[in-house]
Design a protein that fits this description.
It is a single chain. This protein is mainly alpha-helical and about 70 residues long. The chain has helices spanning about 10-20, 25-35, 40-50, 55-65; strands at about 5, 10. Helix 1 crosses helix 4 (about 55-65) and helix 2 (about 25-35) crosses helix 3 (about 40-50). The model has no long low-confidence stretch (mean pLDDT about 95).
Length: about 70
C-alpha cells in the first residue's frame, strides 16, 4: 500500500524527493543528488508541492514526519 500525504497517494520516487527536500541542502545539491538538472528539479518540486498542497519546506517535513516517512 502506497503512502498517502494530504489525501494524495505518493510514489516511492516522490517520497525520495520529499526526503531530500526536507533536509538542509540547497536545491542545487538536491538536484545533483537526485540526478536532475536544476531546472527539471524545480519543475518536479513545484508539481509535487501542488499535488500534496504544500507551500513551504516546513509543511512538507511536518507531513512526512506525521506519516512516519522521516
Amino acid at each position: 500500500q502506497k503512502p498517502v500525504i494530504n489525501g494524495e497517494t505518493v510514489t516511492t520516487e516522490e517520497i525520495k524527493i520529499l526526503k531530500e527536500i526536507c533536509g538542509n541542502d540547497k536545491n542545487t545539491t538536491i538536484a545533483d543528488n537526485l540526478g536532475f538538472a536544476l531546472g527539471t528539479f524545480k519543475v518536479v518540486k513545484t508539481s509535487l508541492y501542488k499535488k500534496c498542497r504544500f507551500i513551504t519546506k516546513q509543511q512538507a517535513a511536518m507531513a512526512m514526519f506525521l506519516e512516519g516517512l522521516l
